[in-house]
Amino acid sequence: MKKRCGTIAIVGQPNVGKSTMLNYFIGTKLSITSRKAQTTRYQLLGIHTLSETQFIFIDTPGYQLKHLNTLNKNLNKTVKQALQNVNVILFLIEPKKMDEIDSKILQMIPENTPVILVINKIDRLKDKSKILQLINEFKDNSRFKEIIPTSVKKESNLKELLESARKFLPEQRFIYEDDQITDKNERFLAAEIIREKIFRLTGQEIPYSVAVEIEKFEHEDNIRRIFAAIIVERDAHKPIIIGNKGIRLKEISSSARIDMEKLFNGKVWLETWVKVQKGWSDDLRALKSLGL
């Protein structure tokens, strides 16, 4: 079997399971997840090498048409950029009819790029006959090379999805080493893990506009010392993250540290604090400094 290697963009609306699917394929928690829209903010490469094939997945922010401040607009641009110059696209939808946002995403995809429609979260359907109904509704759409219903939770049809994507990858040498899983460094991954814990442990109390900046990252003798600033937009948001007597911030830090130690396979010493940077999500200079 000849080697194949290529790029696969995973796109769709917020919360359709893009990052969860990437994490499954990579075999580790690489891309952060939460119920908040556009939790994913960066174009993240996840690399999965399986036998003679190297799949280079591109996880993207969820595309949305509401609450469009400068940050949201930049994230939508990231989605559009990710659709260019890839070998195949996994277009994820929930098990329902496509809406305006789905149609908008489809319109952005170059005509010559193969698209696999992935009807995800089919485990949520009590009436499984609806899966076939949905497939029949979409099968006449010439944009879709294949239609595959999946469930990451139940691990349904994921091997079939990989095999389908493989057919569209070019025959060429691997771009990355066999054991490499991402193009991002540990500093980036540490910030993302902290941000995920903020979203998960504050729920709806804290707004979407929270960022994490790693101010110092030291690595010596398999011990990583990480100093991280949690950035919020308003003074009122600061005590929400800190919590009563600092308990919530300690929970965020402890949970993040545990995940970092699993991912980095080493001891982590983590110090976090909260600072206010008013209006950062609408400030181009601030966004640029955060890589957004």
Provide an overview of this structure:
It contains nine helices and nine strands. By secondary structure, the protein is α/β, with parallel strands linked by helices. The chain folds into two domains: 163 residues, Rossmann fold, CATH 3.40.50.300; 104 residues, 2-Layer Sandwich (GMP Synthetase, Chain A, domain 3), CATH 3.30.300.20. The strands form two sheets. A six-stranded mixed sheet has the order 2-3-1-4-5-6, sandwiched between helices. Strands 7-8-9 form a three-stranded mixed sheet. A hairpin with a 2-residue loop joins strand 2 and strand 3. Helix 6 packs across helix 8. The termini are far apart. The mean pLDDT is 85.
Keywords:
single chain, 292 residues, alpha/beta, Rossmann fold, GMP Synthetase, Chain A, domain 3, 2 domains, six-stranded mixed β-sheet, three-stranded mixed β-sheet, 9 helices, 24% strand, globular
